[in-house]
């Protein structure tokens, strides 16, 4: 079963545990600036929205890469950057419509979410389940259940 | 480890910035943040210095757990000699700024002297520079942050700054970061303003990477977060209702100071409570509360984000206040509301927003307005002087006072001096509900005996956060004690004060102590720093910090006489509630407290105590 990161912004408190977990997983340091998942704080509405790569099937970044540094992890479906191959040309950062693959000055390579090999640290660290790692085919399950509850789980008139 | 190991020393007079190695021996003895920053302050600053003179220093300090995955690891403190009290001031803030400073590679910043012109400090990792702030002077906290983010072309920069209150010398001016998190008390913002220092803008990309035992640290912080999540207060009450969960609870037991402590119960408490914040308004059918919000790394998320009624008289035609914004928290709601007899939730939030926007402490401000209203009802102050009919309960007067205090206009200048100076000037010093010049927070010392003692002995003037015995006396954490009972309270206050000093110094939030004891803090500090931070050692360090602060105050001229409460709490009995007929038993508790602390009858640590604590 393939799993995907599922984000529910309504549950996000803006604590940035996910960003710290991401940087710790990949760099061994707590550095939100190095995180591959970012939480956006829309102050005017009070909304906090985590955002990261959704691992497109036909990934723009993968197709744009001239040196085939981005490949598919067969186990997880993640599009993974091979740092030894990446030449830091940044074409993928232009190709990605979502901005979720970015250049890292310090390494001269690009970085993106790779689902931590199947155990995403951000989802594990999230204290409110705003970020979960669930069955790719059933990301709508919770919402369906809510509506099913509304539709058929009420006391009947008779 | 887990300290960055480096501090910045900024001489504002000379305009220089120097890097120093952190004194690791002191870090071992005082941990960080409150304790370590205070150690630097008491070592470098003459206790008798005028707080608003260039000879005073002001320090921004993080703790070893700031910027880590320990829950609530985002705190920093601002430490200086406070202008409101003349005592040591140490105000703690959350938000994201503290973690950003730590991630830039700095444990603390010490500012000395006074800049000849307005400046701000820019930090981008190792790049540190004093820059002209002429264009920011006169601007609010909110505008300052907006202008800096835009002119630095960096939306991720974090800003800690003052608004007009700090510039104008409001003696309880706050330092505010991330728009609505504040190092709120004791007037640390006024010291910043007196030095012509407008803001500190920080961008940190290095991170915190020197955890002693990362594996053990991840394991223990994960376990401790679980405790927070499963606790009724930190896992349910605070995220759902915020600190405001207390309004009705404290009112019911008759401990909600009302109308400048004339009463201990407020008939309008329910209108300004957490429950009111989630009930649709009659006016527009919308709820006040929008969502909760966490500070950096916090898995509790007690912060309140609210939206005002756009047609309320305070914000009509003022769209800048219509968006989602910070508040109300319990202390602010009490000080702006019950302390003045005002039950208009929207008016309270408006005054609270002005406190955030221009940077001043809603507790001291609200309590000072309470004193003004009492003097007005007595006929000592007139409508002509105040510019408004200022009877208790007037939301119009509250809003008016918040505006003129924020702008430093007219009578607002006098309100900005705090209740102690104001009531003295008008011949009624007994009407200032304060200790050492700093106003009380939201619990009555007659109804809750321990907190009265905690106020009287707090090293920064009246304060609930120096020893939150409410946890025990009202909530039963860690054990229930009877609030009206004074027996055992000296020891309870001491234990809370010492433990709090340790938590404050770690870089974590004291709200974790609803679920954690020092024994839960110890393994986190041990994994991050060194194995010597055992529970016993942390308790001792907490006590050492308390005594160090005390000795600074003693040297500044404070004596046992200053460990007192206003006459009202000592002689005017509570009129209603569970404590009806009671006054504070401070005179009975204080000598026992001194004895428990190992102090002489004048409140000075004995030679034996000093030796025991390696002071």
Account of the protein in words:
The complex is a heterodimer of chains A (158) and B (615). Chain A has helices at 17-27, 60-64, 91-95, 121-125, 141-152; strands spanning 3-7, 38-42, 47-51, 70-72, 79-81, 102-104, 109-111, 131-135. A two-stranded antiparallel sheet of chain A has the order 1-8. Chain A is globular. Chain A contains five helices and eight strands. Chain B is α+β, with helices and mostly antiparallel strands and 615 residues long. Chain B has 25 helices and 17 strands. In chain B, the strands form four sheets. Chain B has a six-stranded mixed β-sheet, with helices on both faces. In chain B, strands 8-7-12-9-10-11 form a six-stranded mixed β-sheet. In chain B, helix 13 packs parallel to helix 17 and helix 20 crosses helix 24. The A-B interface holds A 13-17, 20-21, 23-24, 27-34, 43-48, 125, 127-128 and B 67-69, 71, 96, 99, 103, 156, 179, 203-209, 214, 218, 225, 229, 239, 290-299, 301, 305, 307, 323-325.
Briefly say what this structure is.
Chain A has 158 residues and is an alpha+beta fold. Chain A has helices at residues 17-27, 60-64, 91-95, 121-125, 141-152, and strands at residues 3-7, 38-42, 47-51, 70-72, 79-81, 102-104, 109-111, 131-135. By secondary structure, chain B is α+β, with helices and mostly antiparallel strands.
Give the SSE layout.
The complex is a heterodimer of chains A (about 160) and B (about 625).
Chain A: E1 3-7, H1 17-27, E2 38-42, E3 47-51, H2 60-64, E4 70-72, E5 79-81, H3 91-95, E6 102-104, E7 109-111, H4 121-125, E8 131-135, H5 141-152
Chain B: E1 6-11, E2 16-21, H1 24-30, H2 33-44, E3 58-62, E4 76-81, E5 88-93, H3 97-103, E6 108-112, E7 119-124, E8 127-132, H4 141-151, E9 158-161, H5 164-167, E10 175-177, E11 181-183, H6 188-194, E12 197-203, H7 214-230, H8 232-241, H9 246-252, H10 274-277, E13 289-293, E14 303-306, E15 325-326, H11 330-336, H12 345-358, H13 362-378, H14 383-386, H15 395-407, H16 412-415, H17 419-425, E16 434-435, E17 438-439, H18 449-457, H19 470-473, H20 489-506, H21 518-528, H22 535-556, H23 567-571, H24 586-597, H25 607-612
Helix pairs in contact in B: 1-2, 2-20, 2-22, 7-8, 7-21, 11-13, 12-15, 13-17, 18-20, 20-22, 20-24
């Amino acid at each position: 079963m393939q799993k995907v990161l599922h984000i529910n912004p309504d549950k996000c408190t803006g604590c940035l545990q996910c960003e710290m977990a991401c940087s710790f997983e990949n760099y061994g340091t707590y550095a939100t600036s190095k995180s591959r998942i970012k939480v956006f704080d829309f102050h005017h509405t009070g909304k906090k929205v985590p955002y990261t790569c959704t691992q497109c099937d036909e990934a723009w970044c993968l197709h744009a890469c001239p040196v085939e540094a981005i490949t598919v992890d067969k186990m997880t479906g993640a599009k993974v950057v091979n740092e030894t191959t990446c030449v830091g040309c940044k074409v993928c950062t232009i190709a990605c419509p979502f901005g979720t693959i970015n250049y890292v000055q310090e390494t001269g390579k690009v970085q993106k979410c790779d689902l931590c090999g199947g155990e995403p640290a951000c989802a594990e660290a999230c204290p409110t389940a705003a970020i979960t790692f669930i069955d790719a085919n059933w990301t709508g399950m919770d919402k369906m259940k809510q509506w099913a509850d509304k539709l058929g789980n009420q006391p009947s008139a008779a | 480890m887990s300290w960055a190991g480096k501090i910045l020393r900024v001489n504002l007079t000379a305009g220089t910035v120097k890097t120093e190695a952190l004194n690791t021996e002191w870090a071992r003895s005082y941990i960080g943040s409150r304790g370590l920053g205070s150690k630097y302050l008491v070592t470098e600053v003459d206790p008798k210095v005028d707080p608003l003179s260039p000879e005073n220093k002001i320090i921004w300090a993080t703790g070893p757990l700031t910027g880590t995955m320990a829950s609530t690891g985002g705190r920093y403190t601002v430490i200086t000699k406070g202008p409101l009290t003349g005592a040591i001031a140490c105000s703690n803030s959350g938000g994201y700024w503290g973690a950003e400073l730590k991630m830039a590679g700095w444990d603390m910043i010490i500012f000395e002297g006074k800049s000849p012109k307005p400046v701000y400090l820019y930090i981008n990792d190792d790049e540190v520079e004093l820059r002209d702030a002429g264009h920011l002077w006169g601007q609010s906290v909110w505008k300052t942050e907006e202008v800096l983010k835009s002119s630095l072309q960096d939306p991720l920069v974090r800003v800690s700054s003052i608004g007009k209150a700090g510039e104008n010398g409001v003696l309880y001016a706050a330092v505010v970061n991330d728009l609505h998190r504040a190092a709120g008390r004791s007037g640390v913002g006024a010291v910043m303003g007196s030095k012509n220092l407008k803001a500190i803008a920080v961008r940190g990309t290095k991170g915190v990477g020197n955890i002693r035992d990362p594996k053990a640290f991840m394991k223990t912080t994960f376990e401790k977060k679980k405790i927070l999540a499963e606790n009724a207060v930190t896992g349910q009450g605070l995220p759902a209702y915020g600190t405001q969960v207390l309004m009705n609870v404290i009112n019911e037991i008759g401990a909600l100071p009302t109308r400048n402590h004339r009463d201990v119960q407020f008939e309008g408490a329910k209108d300004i409570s957490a429950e009111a914040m989630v009930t649709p308004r009659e006016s527009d059918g919308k709820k006040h509360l929008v969502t909760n919000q966490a500070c950096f790394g916090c898995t509790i998320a007690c912060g309140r984000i609210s939206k005002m009624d756009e047609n309320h008289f305070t914000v009509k035609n003022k769209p800048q206040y219509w968006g989602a914004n910070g508040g109300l928290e319990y202390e602010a709601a009490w000080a702006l509301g019950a302390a003045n007899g005002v039950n208009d939730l929207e008016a309270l939030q408006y005054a609270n927003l002005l406190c955030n926007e221009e940077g001043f402490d809603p507790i001291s401000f609200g309590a000072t307005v309470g004193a003004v209203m009492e003097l007005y009802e007595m006929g000592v102050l007139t409508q002509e002087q105040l510019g408004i009919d200022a009877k208790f309960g007037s939301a119009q007067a509250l809003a008016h006072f918040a505006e003129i205090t924020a702008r430093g206009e007219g009578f607002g200048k006098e309100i900005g001096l705090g209740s102690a100076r104001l009531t003295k000037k008008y011949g009624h010093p007994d009407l200032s509900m304060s200790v050492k010049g700093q106003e009380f927070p939201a619990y009555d010392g007659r109804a809750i005996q321990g907190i009265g003692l905690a106020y009287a002995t707090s090293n920064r003037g009246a304060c609930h956060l120096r020893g939150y015995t409410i946890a025990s006396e009202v909530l039963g954490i860690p054990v229930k004690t009877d609030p009206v009972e004074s027996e055992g309270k000296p020891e309870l206050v001491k234990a809370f004060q010492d433990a709090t000093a340790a938590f404050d110094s770690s870089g974590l939030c004291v709200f974790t102590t609803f679920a954690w004891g020092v024994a839960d803090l110890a393994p986190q500090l041990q994994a991050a720093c060194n194995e010597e931070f055992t529970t016993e050692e942390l308790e001792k360090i907490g006590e050492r910090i308390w005594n160090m602060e005390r000795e600074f105050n003693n040297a500044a001229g404070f004596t046992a006489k200053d460990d007192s409460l206003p006459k009202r709490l000592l002689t005017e009995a509570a009129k209603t509630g569970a404590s009806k007929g009671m006054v504070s038993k401070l005179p009975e508790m204080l000598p026992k407290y001194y004895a428990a602390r190992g102090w002489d009858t004048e409140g000075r640590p004995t030679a034996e105590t000093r030796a025991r604590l390696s002071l």
